[in-house]
Amino acid sequence: MRDGRIDLCFCSALMSVCAIFMASGLSASSEEGKQPVLVELLTSEECSSCPPADALLAQLDRQQFIPGAWAIVLSEHVTYWNDLGWKDPFSKPELTEQQRRFANQLRTEGPYTPQMVVNGQWEFVGSNVAALSKAVQEAANQERLHPPVEIRVENLQVNGKTLHATIKTGPGLGALLFAVLAADTPPAQVARGENAGKSLSHVAVVRSLVELGAPLKDCALHLSLPGDTPAKMRLILFLQDGKTGRVMGSTEIIFNRSKAGA
Predict the structure, then answer these.
(1) For 55-68, what is the HEC assignment?
(2) What is the distance between the alpha carbons of residues 235 and 221, in angstroms, rounded to a whole number?
(3) From CA 47, how far away is CA 148, in angstroms rounded?
(4) d(CA 146, CA 102)
(5) pTM of the model
(6) Can you state the angle between helices 129-145 and 50-63, rounded to 10 degrees?
(7) Residue 87: Cβ within 10 Å count
(8) Residue 116 in domain
(9) What is the pLDDT of residues 95-140, one digit of tens each?
(10) d(CA 193, CA 188)
């Protein structure tokens, strides 16, 4: 168990549950012929350079403007800005650690914000539209030549405040499987710091990031749902090479807790 959020991923039948997602409350965010590409934004509400990058990520999520790619986006709020005037309410130490791994794997000089990372292979300043378009396009082209490892989510259900699902993956030698719960945030005013007085909103803010370990053919997933998130949430799973950080496959499910009766 890690931070009380997840039981170990194991091969078993799911326990019976009292709330089941209807088809109208559960959907996969993808389009026929488009390659899934994971786009992670390392950001902070204290950083004055971050709002343009936050807006670009939201635009990418909403418009999906890069041909041939389906961007699966994540806002990852780091902690190292928190002592400079404003404590970001969405910041998490595990996301700061995630960025440190990026720095080692991508050989950057060190963590910075706003930083975008595409499929664990390309990094650049998060507000750079041209760099974003180029990296996502290259990632999509790479996946056409070398198809990503398939990840399927089945039997997604909720029992009280716990999400259950069966995860099926293809073979991923040397890969680690990650599960993320994320949600959009409504506009809220920043009271202090570099962005004092600004009203900021974010897309796909990471509420929990859990490393599940080596993928199994079939495994049972059990995740605690944060109690302070909106009804509409995202479950994102991705396989990542444990050494290089390259994303070997990703998928996203958008679900509505209220329709499930959770």
Answers:
(1) HHHHHHHHHCCCCC
(2) 11
(3) 34
(4) 23
(5) 0.87
(6) 40
(7) 15
(8) yes
(9) 999 999 999 999 998 899 999 999 999 999 999 999 999 999 999 9
(10) 14
